[in-house]
Each structure stands twice: as C-alpha cells, then as structure tokens.
Amino acid sequence: MRISLERFHPVRRSLRRRALWLIGLGVPGVVFASFWVLLAVLMFIWGAQDNPWEDRAVATILFVFGLLPLSITGFMLWRGLANWARAGHYERLIAIAEQNPGSSVVTAARILGMPAKRVTSLALQGATHGFITDMDQGELWLVGHEAPDSDEDLSIPGEDSSGIGPRKHVLGSDVLAQHQAQEQGANAGGSMVGALLGGTYRMGQLIGAGAMGDVYSATHLRTGRRYAVKTIRRDLRVSEDAQRRFEREALAVNRIGHPGIVAVHDFDRAADGTLFMVMDHLEGETLEARLQRVGKLSWEETQRFALDLASALSAAHEERLIHRDLKPANVFIRREAEGLERAVILDFGLAKPIDDAVTSRITATGAAVGTPMYMSPEQARGEAVDQRSDIYGLCAVIYEMATGAPPFMDQTLASVYARLLTEPAAPASSLLGSECPTGLDDVLARGLAKQPADRFASVHELAAALGAVRGADSALRTA
After folding, report:
1. Which of 51, 321, 330, 347 sees the fewest Cβ atoms within 10 Å?
2. Residues 271 and 181 in one domain
3. Domain total of the chain
4. More confident residue, 431 or 152
C-alpha cells in the first residue's frame, strides 16, 4: 500500500478538527448530564428512606432527562477521542513508511503494538478517505505527491498545452522541482535525468511517478524521436514479484501489437540493473481525468471509445492474455491527427496468461488484485478468472462513461465489496432517464452479470451488441 502525503494532510486536519469539536461538546455535556443522573439517584435513595417529597416520579423524570443526553454526549466524546487516536495512528504509520520504506504490514503492526488485522482495518479506513492506495500491495511506501493506482500504474501523459483538467499521474510543479533537485544532487549511480539507457535513450525530465518506478521523457540518440521510458527505481527495494510484473507487461504488450494498447518499442535491463521499458509518448489525458472534468460522456463518445477498448481487449484475448485491472485511470484518450481521439489501454502490469489465471491472485494483505469498483465478483472472491472478467471490467467502464458513476459506489471499500458481490447494478436508465440509449440496459445487465456464464462469451459478442445500441437522438431521427 502507498500513503499520499498530499491527500493525508487535509484528512488529518479534518479528523483533528472534528475530534476537537466532539470533545469540546462532549465533555461539558457529560458533566451536565451526569449531574442530573446523580441527582435522580440521590432522590431515589432519599425516597427509600421515607422520601419527604413522597414523589419518586420527579426522580424518574430527572433520571431519564439526564440519561438520554448522557448517552448522546458520551458517544460524542468517545467518537472525538477515537478520531484523535486514529489521526495519531495514521501519523505513526506514515513515520514507519518514511523511516522504513518497504516495511511489511506485519512489521508495521509490531511497531505500532497492534494486531495485523487492526492495521489492515486502519489502512482500509485510510483508503476510504483516499490517501492510502494499492491495498493489494503488502508493503508500505510513502508518496509525497498524488499517487497512481498501483505500483505499475504509471500513465504516460504527453505535453498538454491546453491546460484543461488535472493530470492524475503528473507531479505537481513544486514536488516535481523538489524531486528533480534531489536527482541532480544525487550521485551518478542514483540520477536518471541525463542518464543514457541502453546506449540509446537519453533521459529527460520526469513526467510521471509511482512508488515503484518513474516515467521520464527520453530522446532516441540516433533518430531524435521522443519516447516515454518507464523504469523501476534503483533506490528502492523492489520485490521479485514487482519485477516479474514489470517484465511481463513489456513482453505482453509487445506481443499484442494493437493501436489500442500503448506500444512498447524496447525493453531491457541497463548495466546498473535498472529495468526500463520504452513506450509511446502519448498526447491527451486519461479517461479518469476526462470524466472528472466533464462528468459523463455523450453516447456517441461512449460508444466510440467502448468499441476502441473492445478491439484492443479482443487482440489481447487472442494472445491468451487478460488485463485484470480495467478502469478509467488505465484508459488514455489519445489525441491523434486532425483532432481525432482514440481510447488506448494502459498498464498491463497485472496482465496474466489465461491458462495461468486459474485463480486470481490474493496478496499477503488478503486483498484481491484489481480495483473494487471495476473488478468482477469472481475476481473479488479470488476465484478462477478468464476473459469474461475483462468483459465485466469493460462494461463497468462503459457504465461510468455513459452515466458519470461506476456501477457500485459506497462510503467504504467494505460496502463496495458487499454490493459488488450481492446486488445487481442499477440500470443505466435509472440515472439517464429518457436520454438512455435504446438497448443499453440490456447490454450492461448482461456484461455485469454476477455469474461469468451469464455474460457475453467474448469481447466480439459484446462489441456487436454495443454497435447495435442507438442513442436517443439517432432513435428519434430513425423514427
């Protein structure tokens, strides 16, 4: 898991502020209510000794009058103290990640003096707040900027002169400057800016970063062409599993060779041991950034991008590869010639041969690989997965493009999992009303079916069904 400092600081301030309010209201409330409860108890005692008032009804009223606010203010006080303690636990967890990067959850639990399950529960709460990501990773990493969604999730954004919308995977200018300054001051073995990889690629500025690797712009010395080079950072202890995923991504993408999947042009290990992958330098923005900016897409855009993704997935499935982590952050809207756009799939770091995907991987933290709002039910349960799991993920992305929201959302990850496993997704028409394209509900209901056998058998079959869906405007014109 990774902890983003940029996201943590406002959460900590909010927790502290809420805790102070609750404690500030709870303490005087408990004192005031306790006075009336104590007074009522004394009156009962006096009544047992021939109460001169001979009216215990008054004592009963006082007791009820005091017990109710005592319960409420006592709960407020408890919640305030719990929020204050939770903020402290988060700060200690961050200190562990800062002082001992790569520490396991078990190690963190031992340092904190907590059971490992309690630390995992704390991390889930942090994930709900949005400053802890990568729950499928069993190590702690501190990220000083907005973090990607997985250790291999390094989007390859191009230069965007339009300045529209946030780029999730691009460092902020101040953080980027600090990172580059650190690199410039590092020794020759630790600096990547200006380095020559494979005797061919001159590394330029940092354009994206993750806990396990960085993405740099790079120039081919002989052709002068610009690329994006994705590396595993040499200053971090990288697990063998992460290295295998990195190598698998390069080999898998290179074998597919589809325009709807970001192209890999080279892959090697430098003389100093640095793994690097040379990829297209894309121009545009992620689908996640587009949706954050515009809310939802028109059906014409949704259908066009969905068919782009279906074509790319079909090519991957023909090579016996499943992606396993389709989501808006892993889809890039690439600008092409004459203002055209194409949806391109990023990050095959979780790709796996279908024959090897007998069960979906469960990590040391007990979390299934993938992203809960887009993963299939069988993947969430750690059961066997095949191409129909990708079909589910694609339909979840289509659902969000069309409606502006994923099929399942809730306040906590646990609630998302519960709904994913037990509830059908709400029909798109319930969100779009009369704007819902004819036939879209049926396509999504089948693609998001709980049982793989009830879904489309192939992406080709899904694409054919999507092509037959007509938007409201086209339906009116046909009529």
Report:
1. 51
2. yes
3. 3
4. 431
